[in-house]
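General statements about sequence and structure are easier to judge against a single worked case. No coordinates are needed to read the tokens, only the vocabulary itself. The sequence in question and its structure tokens are set out directly beneath this paragraph.
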Amino acid sequence: MLYLYLAAGGIVGTFARYGVGQWFPTRPGTDFPWPTFAINVAGSLLLGFVMRTFQAMPVTPEVRALATVGFCGTFTTFSTFSYETVALMQAGHWGRASLYAAGSVAVGLLAVFAGMALAGAAFRPRG
């Protein structure tokens, strides 16, 4: 049964990732991968929120897997982030590549903290 929950979360995460990626307009001459950046930040925020919520509201292992590994795992895009960083470097855009890599990690970490803080304010943790 766990695998069905993982698959369901994965399917929804995949469609959500595609939808968010399509939502961002592509502008000629812009080399910064804004859609992937936004997806990773949003996924980090969501994962932080979900993990803190699950501390306050116990859920089954299946629901935890659906939300974390299934949805967030397919929604966020670390492999795409890594490839895009290398592509920027290979194109000679070292400044953009550095900004993208450092910004993604820094803002992603802040988003996890923000998600945890939001969930902490909304739900009282156990224990």
In short: Residues 2-23+34-122 form one domain. The two ends are 29 Å apart (CA to CA).
